[in-house]
Structure formats: C-alpha cells, structure tokens
Amino acid sequence: MTTEELIEKQKNLHSIDDVNDFIKDLVGPTIQKILEGEMTQHLGYDKHNNTGDNSGNSRNGYSKKTIKTKHGEVELDVPRDREGAFEPIIVPKGERRVTNDIEDKIIELYAAGTTTHDIEYLMNDLYGISVSASMVSMITDKVEPLVRDWRERPLSATYPIVYLDGIHFKVRTDGKVINKCGYTVLGVNCDGTKELLGIWIGEHESSKWWMGTLNELKNRGVEDIFIACVDGLKGFTEAITAIFPNTQIQRCIVHQVRASMKFIPHKLKDKFCTDLKEIYNAPNEEAGYHALQEMKPRWEKYAYALEGWERNWSELSTFFVYSEPVRKLIYTTNGVESLHRQLRKITKTTSVFPHDDALMKLLWLGQRRISKGWQANKMPQWSEAISQLSVMFPGRLKLD
Questions:
Q1: How far apart are CA 187 and CA 298, in angstroms?
Q2: Residue 173: inside a domain, yes or no?
Q3: Which residues contact 155 (CB under 8 A, 6 or more apart)?
Q4: 399 within some domain
Q5: What is the pLDDT of residues 190-212, one digit of tens each?
Q6: Does 150 fall in a domain?
Q7: For 164-178, how does the pLDDT look when each residue is reduced to its tens digit (9 = 90+)?
C-alpha cells in the first residue's frame, strides 16, 4: 500500500474495526522494513551497494513467513544471506509472534553488536521512536543485576571437560586505554551440553590470578573436573593442580603446532606440518613420542621449533590414552575459541570500551544469545565419550 493510499484510508476511519485494519496495514510494511534494516546491519552494506562486492557474504533472496501480531496475521518476506548466518531480531528464527516490548528489542540489538548510535538511528528510522544513545546505555544497564546473578549462580558438582581461554579487548582505565582480557571457562556437563561457567575481566594472568578464579568456581559448587583443556597461557597448570589436584591437563595441540610453525620458513611449512601430524596422529603416547624423536634429526637446523613439544610433552600427550570420541573433544580448545569468534563479531563495533562493566555487560548479553542453542546440541559422540570417562575416572561421575 502506497503512502497516498494510507493517507486516504486514514481519512475514512469510522469504527474500531477500521482503526485495527489500518494499523494492520502498517504493521507488515514496518516489520518488513526493520528486517531489511537488520540485514543491512548484519552484512555491513546497503542493498545494491558495491561495497558488498567480494565481501564474502551477500543477500540471497527471501523466505516466506506468517507471523501473529496483536493486530492479526502478517505475511513477511524474510531476507536470507548466502552464509545462512543472518538471525533476525525483530522476528527471531522459529518464532511466529511479534511482541511490542521496545526495551527488549533494544537489548537484543545491543547484544547482537549494534552500537548505541546505530540503535538510536534504527529506532528513529524504523520504529519512529526517539531514543538517544545515552538512553540505550541506560536501558541496557538494566541487565546488570542479571549479569551479577549469572556470575554468582550455583554450578554443577562435576564437569567432565572444561576449556580455559581468554579473548582480548581495549578498555579505558584511569584515563588510559589498556589491553584487557575476558577470561572464559567453558564447561561440558555430564549431559554433554556446553555451559559457560563464567567470564572474568583481567589485565595480567598469573598462577595467583587463576587460583582465585578456580577457587570461585569451587565456592559455587564445582567439586571435580576430569580434564582441563588449556592453550598454554601462563599460570594455568599451577592453578589447576592446586585447586583441582586430580584433574588431568591437556594442552591444546593446535596452539602448539602454531607456536612451532613460527620458527619455520614459509617454503618448508607444509613439510614440517606433515611431519608434526605423525606425532599427534599416532595411535598411542609411545608412538607419538617416538615420532617426535625421529623428527629431531630431520629438522636439526630448526631444533628450537620442537623444544616446546619436548618441554610440554606431559600435557600434550594426555589425550593419547583415549579413543577417538574423547580425543576429538580434548586435543584442542576449539570449543571455546568458537565462542570467542562469535563474541568477537558482537564486540567488533566497539574499538574501546569505556570501562570493565561495559565490556562485561556486552559479553554477557552476547553469550546469552549464543548459548541459546547449546541445550539442544550435545557434544558429538557424547554417549561413547562419557562411557570412556566413567571408566577412566571411576567413582567420580556425579549426576546432579
């Protein structure tokens, strides 16, 4: 319906039914415009704009969807992208009803990584509502009690697998912009589903710092961790063994490979990487260590590239005692790195956070959005994995 037709119809509103029909005619086009705006926000460029050429993702047509509003059913054309990564906020996937809670929409936009100034523009352009950037901040600040409750919530007694890692940001502190890290502890519970146990903002990691973090987990109910997967950051091993002395530690193989490759000339990287596979693809620890020793004379000129493997062997070789279902889960920290990649997409619009609380707020909103699908998706081959773990850690598997 054109603007002229809407104006003409507005002149002939004589009953409540006329008003409802008029509003219904407005709802569909308004939501459609919001969807188009969200797709532009997701891709980073307007429709038909050359900026999108070779960007790696693009619009890919539409899918039909009928939704229920307080004014009746409305049919929409939901835009799609080629990567299939677009998730509408105004009409989330799987939902068939639109609410009118603007504050919730603002929070969801913010959680998706939309800047306060962009939200200000979207609210005015799409909803016709004047919302200042400072008001957006005030609205999103309402989640802070939820963040506090989440950070203090009780945890399960047993986590078969836990991944520890960090993601770095720039934060303004005492008038200076410094690098800070959002330290994350991602657990796999006994049901095989992922659970983010906590996020901590810190400047310098150390054994003492990680001991405090792990003590906090213990005070929140964690009694036992079977295997802790780490990337080799300073202080992990000492802290874990001090608080959870019966926990096995698996250092990330992928991180160790990357560290070794830094010392190898580009033209030799493929050959070196092929030789490394003989180590971590070995059938058992003895064969893996033998492959490492055989590799040394072949790469004597770059011996320092293999020193880390020798030095960290006790933590690199933990996964050898397990078969494929468990090996795949613990030989790398990719599980938590996938979470970090998604958080990075959400936080990339903020180059410098004004303070720690602003960073924590956005990380919490981001993880809440990301973790919605975790409950329905267990870790791959979990039944086989938990069977092995129950044998390897007899009497320690406690179901809540």
A1: 40
A2: yes
A3: 187, 197, 217, 220, 221, 222
A4: no
A5: 999 999 999 999 877 667 788 88
A6: no
A7: 988 889 999 888 999
